[in-house]
Design a protein that fits this description.
The chain is an alpha+beta fold. It has 24 helices and 26 strands. Helices cover about 50% and strands about 15% of the residues.
């Protein structure tokens, strides 16, 4: 066995160029596929690490009811009274749990720090089947009476990274937003909540919401929605059956809620009663990662699959060329008495050794690639949910496909001589077989076509990225530092909070070099969104229309600090405090849509029929969430009149040291209030609006480059082999008076024919790709010929370079030597 293996390895090493190119092509294809699929599996396919995740369902309702809603994800949120009714009255479920995300200030050994809190129902861990690694998890008895259960369970990651895995923390009281809460346990390792992309630090009972979100309790409000609801199906009950039963309860609960909701207009009441409950599969929880990255990674999966296909086609082309070259060798071995089965075993061993070598190299490529990809992902929440581990299932699949291709084409020499007359095979000198040569050329044409599609795709992503970067956000981004504060979590409320924020603005403005300081609840590209119903004085909504608008609270000087022009009226100033009449500023998009030629200044708007806000200004439109979408109706409220739970501070100017100086000001003004998420406004826009497209464009370009290299290698192999097999013809042509330039033209004409054959398939395929990409990419037009044309031009240049060396060798053929060999 070892002797046969040594013979096989020596046989491959006698052709180092072939072995390196074949194994390298497969390694790159398998490695790239395994890396991308490993990420795709973790982002879009991996279930929660809980008991029987397939029995979990998520509650979902389309549309938006009257009232307000706050959430840290895209999933539907419900009020606490509604959740309680589901929990106590739904008989089709084994249990119904709820959660909501929040932030808190925790006093740690190193000082005050911000922590991510998961407000959960007492049965949350019981419904999921998650246990404690230390102590106990929260239980229903911990969640009975509002404000009466000051207990907390620690996430395993928080316990190890921030508290040093101190087992003595059990039973200890820690200060959360200034309140002592007893640590009752540490959640088991590996469980990171049910929102993929958000990593909790603390788990706190829902009934302690007043301590976690001071100033925003609304615990018993039927029209205040803030809870994601999930449930576990009873054994043997399918999701469809449970949905039918839950729907009856859902309608009954909504009818019972009507007396506790403000009076609705006929259209609102009709929409309210028409909404239905849908139970979505909950095995993956609330998958923010899939929502943000799933489609993009799906595109990359398709692209990297084409790379593997090109690699396999390249292997097939190389093995067929090697098979033709070994046809006479096999005939000789058979003529001297060799066994066909012995030769078959040798060829099989060679193919398997080649594939295993490619697999080992591909494993190295895949590990490096997935680690690099994970390192590029922004945000600690996302990084914690994905890892550098490989998906070995796909790697094994790619290895099997490659091995099958290697076995099929590696055994071609024996198959070609199985029924051939050996005398004819031994006499064969030059012919390589028209059908076999055609098959090799078809493989190369296929590689060129696929490479053209990948290059065109990379061009589309690059065009989208350039379009995004050229888009004017509508405000000045340079020289602005941002950071976040949560004064309510540090005990500042009402007049104290207003005085604190005013004092901070004054002290920060006084820093050397600072031009302006402003504050906002979310701010542009802050990663969050607040949207609500809108009522406009004098505007009659259509029967099927639900007027709404985005909402943010901004301080005096906000528009001036960001360079946003007020086109009518005024911006907020110091007189717009908590004691003044409520005022608002709207953007141009809202004025165009809801006022239609009327002057909005002095008019009233609101998120209920009371119309509590008077419009004092109209601001220029700017991009608030995404660069790729036009501005939508927006309402800006005065920060002092409606202080948000989290405030983003904007400092223009001050130079490189302004961050440290600002932190010192905050420490002196409000000890114990952490400064979080400090970064430049340009970086914030890069992370929120450009990172995904930039990453996909870079990966698409890398895959296009890889495909081009593989296609060039395949083309070089076919042209070089064709020139070598036609050396006698080349010598005869030159003996009859052909010049070297004629030989060059002959070789390049054959190369051009291969490129043209690839273009016949690749060009229309690339055009169709543009049609599909139009719906997903910014500034991309359907059937745009420029990316495919650019890809074709690049491939033509690469093909010319690949054919240059064989053409030069053919042009230097000695006619006498070539004819003598014939």
């Amino acid at each position: 066995m070892l002797g046969n293996l040594r013979v096989t390895i020596r046989s491959l090493l006698r052709s180092p160029g072939f072995t390196a190119v074949a194994a390298g092509s497969l390694a790159l294809g398998m490695g790239a596929n395994s890396a991308i699929f490993s990420l795709f599996d973790q982002v879009a396919l991996r279930p929660l690490p809980v008991a029987e995740p397939a029995r979990l369902v998520l509650f979902h309702t389309d549309g938006q009811d009257v009232g307000w809603a706050m959430a840290d994800n895209f999933s539907t949120v419900y009020s606490y009274p509604n959740y309680r009714d589901f929990r106590d009255r739904a008989e089709v479920f084994a249990g119904v749990a709820a959660r909501a995300g929040a932030s808190a200030t925790v006093m740690e050994p190193s000082g005050a720090a911000n922590a991510q809190v998961e407000l959960v129902s007492g049965n949350f861990f019981e419904v999921l089947g998650v246990r404690a690694a230390l102590g106990r998890a929260l239980q229903p008895a911990d969640d009975l009476t509002p404000g009466a259960h000051p207990v907390v369970a620690l996430a395993h990651g928080y316990w190890t990274s921030r508290l040093g895995a101190d087992r003595g923390v059990l039973g200890r009281r820690i200060l959360v937003n200034g309140h002592p809460m007893e640590v009752i346990g540490v959640v088991e390792r590996g469980f990171q909540g049910v929102v993929a992309g958000r990593v909790p630090d603390l788990y706190v009972p829902l009934t302690m919401k007043g301590w976690i979100t001071p100033g925003w309790n609304a615990f018993e409000e039927v029209s205040g929605r803030w809870l994601n609801v999930l449930a576990r199906l009873r054994p043997g009950i399918p999701r469809e059956t449970a949905q039918a039963g839950a729907q009856v309860l859902f309608r009954a609960i909504r009818e019972e809620n009507l007396p506790h909701i403000r009076p609705m207009q006929p259209r609102e009441l009709r929409d309210y009663r028409s909404r239905t409950l849908e139970l979505l599969p909950g095995a993956q929880g609330i998958n923010l990662l899939s929502h943000q990255w799933g489609k993009r990674l799906g595109v990359l999966m398709a692209m990297v699959g084409l790379v593997l296909l090109i690699a396999c086609a390249n292997l097939a082309s190389l093995l067929m060329a090697r098979a033709a070259a070994r046809r006479k060798e096999i005939a000789v071995r058979l003529a001297v008495g060799g066994s066909r089965f012995d030769i078959l075993r040798q060829l099989v061993r060679e193919s398997l050794v080649l594939t295993v070598a490619a697999g080992l190299a591909g494993l190295v490529v895949a590990r490096w690639a997935v680690a690099a990809l994970v390192g590029l992902v922004p945000g600690t929440g996302t990084q914690a949910w994905i890892s550098g581990s490989l998906n070995l299932r796909l790697f094994a699949y790619a290895l099997a496909v490659s091995a099958a291709a290697g076995l099929l084409f590696g055994c071609a020499p024996l198959l070609q001589t199985w029924r051939v007359d050996l005398v004819s095979a031994l006499k064969e000198q030059t012919a390589s077989g028209g059908a076999r040569q055609l098959a090799r050329k078809a493989m190369v044409a296929l590689q060129l076509a696929l490479a053209m599609v990948l290059l065109a795709g990379a061009g589309l992503f690059a065009r989208a990225l350039v379009g995004l970067k050229r888009t004017d956000p509508g405000f000045r981004t340079e020289g602005v530092l941002t950071f976040a504060l949560q004064p309510q979590l540090a005990g500042y409320e009402g007049a104290r909070e207003e005085a604190l924020m005013r004092g901070l603005r004054e002290r920060l403005t006084a820093l050397p070099g600072v031009e302006a300081v402003a504050m906002a609840g979310l701010g542009p590209f802050g990663g969050g969104r607040s949207r609500g119903s809108l009522y406009v004085e004098g505007y009659a909504a259509a029967p099927d229309e639900e007027p709404d608008a985005d909402i943010d609270a901004v301080s005096a000087g906000f528009f001036r600090a960001l360079g946003i022009r007020i086109v009518a009226g005024r911006e907020f100033d110091e007189r717009d405090d908590a004691a003044a009449a409520p005022v608002a500023i709207v953007n141009e998009a809202l004025a165009r849509k809801y006022f239609r030629g009327r002057n909005p200044l002095g008019m009233r708007i609101g998120n209920n029929p009371g119309l509590e806000y008077r419009i004092v200004g109209v601001a220029r439109d700017f991009h608030f969430h995404l660069l790729r979408r036009p501005a939508e109706p927006f309402v800006y409220l005065a920060h002092a009149q409606r202080p948000p739970p989290r405030t983003v501070v904007y400092i223009r100017g001050g130079g490189p040291g302004v961050g440290q100086a600002a932190q010192a000001v905050v420490r002196e003004t409000a000890p114990g209030m952490p400064v979080t998420d400090m970064k430049s406004l340009e970086r914030r826009i890069e992370e929120q609006a450009l990172f995904a497209t930039r990453s996909i464009a870079a990966l698409a370009a890398a895959f296009g480059f890889l495909a081009t290299v593989l296609a060039a290698v395949g083309l070089y192999g076919v042209v070089a082999y064709s020139v070598a097999r036609r050396s006698g013809e080349m010598g005869l042509r030159m003996a009859l008076g052909a010049a070297p330039g004629d030989i060059y033209r002959l070789v390049f004409r054959e190369t051009a024919a291969l490129v043209a054959a690839g273009a016949l398939v690749g060009f229309p395929s690339a055009l169709l790709l543009g049609r599909v990409a139009e719906a997903y990419l910014f500034d991309v037009k359907a059937y745009d010929p420029l990316p495919p044309a650019a890809a074709l031009l690049l491939l033509a240049v690469v093909a010319a370079v690949a054919a240059a060396a064989p053409a030069r060798k053919a042009a230097r053929t000695d006619p006498v030597m070539a004819l003598r060999a014939e």
